[in-house]
Design a protein that fits this description.
Layout lengths: L1 H18 L9 E16 L2 E4 L4 E5 L2 E6 L4 E14 L2 E18 L2 E10 L4 E13 L4 E7 L2 E3 L6 E11 L1
Antiparallel strand pairs: 1-2, 1-4, 1-11, 3-5, 4-5, 5-6, 6-7, 7-8, 8-9, 8-10, 9-11, 10-11
């Protein structure tokens, strides 16, 4: 009788362990990321400026995302930018980018960011982001930031950029 009771107990335990669903994600969830940003084209009333021509600008966005739920989150991004021109390079700008995250599904995320730059300019930066490769502990992403900037006695500008990086 003891053997039968033990066998039934083992069978019930085994069946119940297979029928359990995976635990749901616990929120808030914190993630970090780092990337490389390339502004491609900038449009303003003074003309069109292309990167990779007589100068090259690259940024290194570093950020923290705090997901409140599976769909909505907050992000704080910090972007130092370096400009290389005429054989020299220097840090050209630093941008603080707080914003909201909206998961669109299938690896797509929209980030709506405010922008505050040490150059004295400010504005907004909508970003469309896609997770390209999702790993167990990290993922690779590509993004298209579309910054609009105002202020500091310069004309309003609109830039199209390309960003890629790793999230963890």
């Amino acid at each position: 009788m003891k053997k039968i009771s033990l066998a039934v107990l083992l069978l019930i335990t085994t069946i119940s362990s297979y029928s359990q669903t995976a635990p749901s994600q616990i929120y808030p969830k914190i993630a970090g990321y780092v990337g490389i940003l390339h502004p491609i084209l900038t449009f303003s009333s003074t003309g069109t400026d292309t990167n990779f021509g007589d100068h090259y600008v690259a940024g290194m966005p570093v950020g923290i995302n705090i997901w409140k739920s599976q769909r909505i989150g907050f992000s704080a991004e910090f972007v130092p930018s370096v400009r290389a021109e005429n054989g020299t390079s220097k840090m050209a700008n630093f941008t603080f980018h707080p914003g909201i995250l909206v998961a669109l599904g299938k690896g797509w995320t929209f980030a709506g960011r405010a922008a505050f730059e040490t150059s004295g300019r400010y504005g907004v930066t909508p970003v469309l982001n896609k997770t390209v490769i999702k790993g167990k502990n990290s993922s690779l992403f590509a993004a298209v930031p579309l910054p609009v900037r105002f202020g500091n006695d310069k004309p309003t500008s609109f830039t199209i950029g390309f960003q890629f990086g790793i999230a963890f």
